[in-house]
Design goal:
The model is unreliable at 14-22 (pLDDT under 50). By secondary structure, the chain is α/β, with parallel strands linked by helices. Among the domains are: 2-24 and 375-454; 131-266, D-Maltodextrin-Binding Protein, domain 2 (3-Layer(aba) Sandwich), CATH 3.40.190. Helices cover 51% and strands 12% of the residues. The strands form 3 sheets. Strands 2-1-3-12-4 form a 5-stranded mixed β-sheet, with helices on both faces. It has a 5-stranded mixed β-sheet with strand order 7-6-8-5-9. Strands 10-11 form a two-stranded antiparallel sheet.
Length: 455
């Protein structure tokens, strides 16, 4: 009970100092601003989500393994990661482009966006080179056109390998409906199919092929890795391809594998996201990408990836900012969960302050104008009455009428409620009323004492 009594006393004291109307006006401004800020906070999601979904690749593929690395690293930041098993790069792109599929980011090979609706997608940057490797049996070959009429396994439909192999074979005059046979080997049986003469060549990439199989193929004594001697020409003809070199002996110096520098071609792997991805999640994902893809490898230098290479998809503004200056201050200084809460609080306080500062400055001025207008409006009536009072031609009857009008003005003025801060103006008005009354009464007395009135 005592706190309520103290609050009531404080309210009355505040009303006495500022005026009840002004306190109410400021209270209304505060309530409206609070309501607007709260609605802004409710209907707009300023805090970073605590979960993310990644479109990976087939089980055992490089894409799938990298997605698991993201899950572990982001988990340390307090972000829950769901990894979707997919058929590879093209499948990832389709899922990202479909708003009905719950996925946020995915690995996509360069050159696969043709015909896809990418208006709602953006790139967070390139993560690595993805070389295309063609393994075959038999005599060494120098041109892809030499595989015409043979049995080829170019990877499962929907994979990046399949799409790129079709594009390269087409440039060499090899079409799917021609004499060349396209075999779809059972997953996990690629090496057996090649060794057992069920296929003549296989096209493999890391998006749909396990890294263990690639190592086995590179070390198999009866299997050859195709050397893209026309690599420079392919990269000039197909803009998203890069020329890569597998150095002599780099896989096994003792056995000199490969026995010569081998030219390869391949696109880069891009980390593609929907444009709705929260900036804070973009930052932590790119931090994880730097940890996963930043080390040196056979085809890249240390720190070369991730990089803001722009190909078919635009680099997001958040990714560009990250590559320029790193993570935002809050997420660089605090753990992800705490930074997310601080961001939400700031998102609440800033719009509230933007509303309150001008409103609180304007409220007293509007209130003062309202109070002054209550007083000033009677000065106009008082001036008109005083003008009539000083007119020598005013008769007794008119003077008595003016006095009754003045009494009416005084009665109405006495009912005006003004705060103490405006007391000088209020009593000044009442003093002027008394002055006009004394003037009218003095004139009446003078007229009464004049000789004309005595007669």
């Amino acid at each position: 009970m005592r706190p309520m009594i103290q609050a009531a006393r404080t309210w009355r004291r505040l009303c006495g100092l500022l005026g009840q109307g002004q306190v109410l006006a400021i209270g209304v401004v505060l309530l409206v601003a609070l309501a607007l800020a709260t609605s802004t906070l409710v209907f707009m999601n300023f805090s970073a989500p605590g979960s993310i979904t990644i479109a990976g690749g087939p089980k055992g593929s490089v894409f799938a393994k990298n997605a698991e690395k993201y899950r572990q690293i982001l988990g340390r930041q307090g972000v829950r990661v769901t990894v979707l098993a997919t058929d590879g790069s093209l499948d990832n792109l389709r899922r990202l482009a479909d708003p009905n599929v719950p996925v946020d980011i995915g690995f996509v090979l360069g050159g696969e966006t043709e015909g896809a609706d990418t208006t709602k997608l953006m790139s967070l940057g390139s993560l690595s080179y993805q070389p295309l490797m063609v393994f075959y049996r038999g005599a060494p070959r120098k041109l892809l056109s030499e595989f015409a009429g043979q049995r080829l396994d170019i990877g499962p439909p929907g994979s990046g390998t399949h799409a790129l192999a079709l594009a390269l074979l087409k440039t060499n005059g090899i079409e799917p409906d021609g004499a060349t046979g396209f075999v779809n080997t059972v997953a996990g049986d690629l090496m057996g199919a090649l060794m057992e003469n069920r296929v003549d060549a296989i096209f493999v990439m890391g998006d749909s092929t396990s890294s263990e199989l690639l190592r086995k193929l590179l070390r198999a004594p009866d299997i050859h890795l195709f050397n893209f001697t026309q690599a420079d020409g392919y990269t000039r003809r197909i803009g998203y391809l890069n020329k890569l070199v597998l150095p002599k002996g780099s896989l096994d110096f003792g056995k000199d594998i490969p026995a010569e520098d081998t030219a390869l071609i391949g696109p880069t792997v891009e980390l593609v996201a929907r444009e709705s991805l929260h900036p804070a999640l973009s930052d932590v994902v790119l931090e994880a990408a730097r940890e996963i893809h930043g080390s040196a490898g056979l085809f890249k230098k240390r720190g070369e990836f991730p990089s803001p290479q722009e190909h078919e998809l635009r680099i997001s503004a958040d990714a560009s900012r990250y590559y320029t200056s790193g993570k935002s201050y809050l997420y660089r200084t605090f753990p992800f969960g705490i930074a997310s809460v601080i961001t939400r609080v700031i998102a609440f306080v800033v719009p509230l302050a933007l509303l309150l500062i001008p409103a609180l400055k304007l409220a007293p001025a509007i209130y003062r104008w309202r109070i002054e207008s209550r007083i000033h409006r009677w000065y106009r009536a008082l001036l008109d009455l005083e003008r009539d009072a000083f007119n020598p031609a005013v008769g007794q009857g008119r003077r008595e009428q003016l006095l009754r009008h003045l009494d009416d003005i005084e009665a109405k003025v006495s009912k005006i409620v003004v705060p103490a801060a405006f007391g000088d103006m209020f009593y000044g008005l009442r003093g002027h009323i008394c002055f006009v009354r004394s003037t009218l009464l003095a004139q009446a007395a003078t007229v009464a004492q004049s000789p004309a009135s005595s007669d």
